[in-house]
Amino acid sequence: MRFTKDHEWVDVSGDVATVGITAYAAEQLGDxxxxxxxxxxxxxxxxxxxxxxxxxxxASDVFAPISGLVTGANTVLADAPETVNDEPENGGWFVKIKxxxxxxxxxxxxxxxxxxxxxxx
Amino acid sequence: xxxxxxxxTDRAEMLALIGAPSIDAxxxxxxxxxxxxxPVALPGDxxxxxxxxxxxxxxxxxxxxxxxxxxxxxxxxxxxxxxxVDHLIQRSEFLTSYTPYQPEIAQGTLQVLFEFQxxxxxxxxxxxxxxxxxxxxxxxxxxxxMAARATRRGKAVLSGGLHPHYAETTHTLAHSAGVETxxxxxxxxxxxxxxxxxxxxxxxxxxxxPNVFGTVTDVSAIAAAAHAVGALLIVVTTEAVSFGLLKxxxxxxxxxxxxxxxxxxxxxxxxxxxxxxxxxxxxxMRQMPGRLCGETVDAAGKRGFVLTLSTxxxxxxxxxxxxxxxxxxxxxxxxxxxxxSLLGGVGLERLARINHARAARAKAALAAMPGVEILTPxxxxxxxxxxxxxxxxxxxxxxxxxxxxxxxxxxxxxxAGLDDVLLVCATETTTVEDIAALAIALKExxxx
Amino acid sequence: MSxxxxxxxxxxxxxxxxxxVAAFGKGLAQDEPLIFELNRWGETGxxxxxxGEDDLTCRDLAGLTRSAAPVLPGLTEPETMRHYVRLSQKNxxxxxxxxxxxxxxxxxxxxxxxxxxxxxxxxxIHPLQPISTVQGALALMGELAHWLKTLxxxxxxxxxxxxxxxxxxxxxxxIRAAHEARGDARRTVLTPTSxxxxxxxxxxxxxxxxxxxxxTDEGRVDIADLAAQLGPDVAAVMVTNPNTCGLFERDIVExxxxxxxxxxxxxxxxxxxxxxxxxxxxxxxxxDAMHINLHKTFSTPHGGGGPGxxxxxxxxxxxxxxxxxxxxxxxxxxxxxxxxxAAAAESQGRICAFHGQMGMYxxxxxxxxxxxxxxxxxxxxxxxxxxxxxxxxxxxxxxxPFPEGPCMHEALFDDEWLEGTGVTTLDFAxxxxxxxxxxxxMYFPLVVHGAMLIEPTETEPRGEIDxxxxxxxxxxxxxxxxxxxxxxxAPVAAPMRRLDETAAARKPRLRxxxxxx
Lengths: 121, 448, 517
What we know:
The structure holds three protein chains of three kinds. By secondary structure, chain A is of the alpha+beta class. Chain A has helices spanning 23-29, 76-79, 83-86, 102-106, 111-120, and strands at 2-3, 8-13, 16-21, 32-36, 43-44, 49-55, 59-63, 68-73, 95-99. By secondary structure, chain B is α/β, with parallel strands linked by helices. Chains B and C meet through helix 1, helix 2, helix 3, helix 4 and helix 5 of B and helix 1, helix 2, helix 3, helix 4 and helix 5 of C.
């Protein structure tokens, strides 16, 4: 798993990356009430706004951590947005992206670096 | 001064506690060049009596609609409001309370909003209604922006029967937000003409029924055609009493219904404050602007109400909000809801039938007149007539006989080439004597 | 003589150190059903006046009518009065106690305004009846406009905006039109991090990109950051003054100068005008456009969330772009220019139907006439005095992010003083409810952690302000003494306990439906 400074995680299997938000981000948000996901087939550029996650008191943009084609979106979240709070780094995933450039993934932080980063916040 | 409780002793003691030598010392951050040394050049304070005399004199220069035969409509309607409505909205707890951000001590306001939303949903025939907008015209403009957001398209087509003020307001807002509006030429009975401009970039078509000329249209076919190309149908209603009798926007396939709610619970007030009604399909709920009240439970398991889905709004989303709206039309929505609670659905229907009956009698009286042509084929409580000379001139002439004959269309749109068209409205407050007086005076005026 | 020796207590035992003023009718009606639960389907509470020849069959509308009357209950007048009076008793209001909402200006609403607004000559006039029949209404609008221009020193005023946010939109549209008129269309608006959410939302609505200006340690706009960000792409700088931290922007004249030098316009959010009305004129500070919330400074009632009114004062440069209708003279008569023609040819157009919020103009003018120039000046002085007094009384216990120097009409605290107590700003606010006070503004401005913004206004008597401070100090003491449960469970004395906002947002139920049991 790799991480961004904006608290997204990326888990690559083959050439498909699963993307979500970290436990830290989910906690900051509070109870998630709604997630707006991109359409399948959309082409994302790294850093582009990809999804919106809403809690009662906040609405945050989720940015694409890497570039690629959106091949899947987690439909579970439509009826059970609380999954993001319960399993942020597992069942609460947001989208699947076909990796355009593997180097982008390598450039992201690993878990140790991310935890170090969290400590500075 | 009657509204300022602090005494000189209070001020001295408070300054002492603060440790400031004078009140002006508290204004130390104001640049010296900008500090006013004395009150501005305006009159000094006045007693209640003096203010009443002053404002009473101004009020006396206006001709109240109820002082004689009165036939103006065109987006604002004279109806009877039961005495209890005005009494209730003046209760301290409704009049002087704030937006219900602390729901535990605002359940009065919140429950009213929930009831209001339910009433608006029932009237418009659409499941999701918000807690009101400023008025019908801004609701219309916001609906167009919402359609553009939801469809991700950039064009709106406005019918030739849409109230010109609504069309202009919509254009101003849409244009600034980068949405193109195409407005068709004024047309008495052609809401369907919007279909001629439908294409793949059309976010929505906007039709009005009854329209500004009073024409009632079944827009179901327009809905189907719009949906076939992925566009939304927005239905505008300026006379809320018509919801009691006519097919609802939802019933006809509207995606968004907007309306002016003034007719129910609110007086004419020279154009404001009014109350905008806004309702949409379930699917569009999260794109909706304005406040929303939702049901929930409290920590003791009791049912209660809260503002909800507020993350769409300005105080959280800021530059990505669905709109910039901060207020709804609270007290006017309360007045609407109280009046609607008194009327009930059957009462509103009866009221609507009476409105139509009176307007039908007015139309019959005018139709019989040589030189007068009734232009509106199917109407609710308002219709357009063609006169043998400019409507504005006729209105002035009848005014000198104590009759306010209606709204000249040229007042709404001077460039439409419809200077000889007069919009005539009758409500339950219009008497047979009023209609007779109008007919006699108009006959005399035309013969002259 | 025999006397019964068994008495009953005639004095209640003191049960707490708090004495709530607002009991919220707890001893009376408790849970009030919805109108849909009163079994009034198919009924009406209105009697109609019928003429014998009214034809109610409406045959000529065949095919256009709904299949049945709307399915909504109708209550008689006694039922209606009870329903709404009971509901009203669950609301807190200014008429009950000090309402310390920062940036909202919850001052007393003079009832004279209500009486004047209901005169038939104001309430029963139609916006499109002949102009000769509404000369008094136009004169009132002209008088209001004169007061607003004189108090602000500005050249022109647009009365139509229906709320503050609507006014912001109007101001920005004028700015955009002005730039386009000189072929200098710009893309960006700058606004401080402490700005109210309507500022960036309004800018985005008008098609601008928004960039934020930083704040100094003294809670004011960072001039250096502003200067660095100004450039040929900036259309406007939107600043609130006094700012949302309750502080006067000392460098405001310089902010205006820099903005103008860069070819941009200076928009002032007038929400906090109550602090300076009659003491300072925005024109003298370099403002080009400013909306004024009539429901704040000029005390038109908040009405549970509206209606508002947000007229915008303009500089001479922006005046041509003000929205229609414009008030004008035709000979010796007042008139309206309702289309973008003649003098109003460059107007931004209409931003709403008809002429604006006449009902609120009457109330605002009644307020202005009552206070007069001297009274309005005193309004600002007393408002600022009350806020500084509260700041002085509370500063020993509650921490302030910007403690140096006087505040203006509102005092800002943060939650640093609550650290380690387990009590959050939210908990503290809910405990205030149990003590009979509406909470202050919480978590705004966003730039301060756990912000608590207190605006008393000038209509509070000294006794009420002292009672408020005493209450907060007592609560603060309880928080620091570790009485966490009291705060976490609060409120317990209000008509409802804390409500589940998560459930409301996850499964929105926005209307009553018959399946609800």
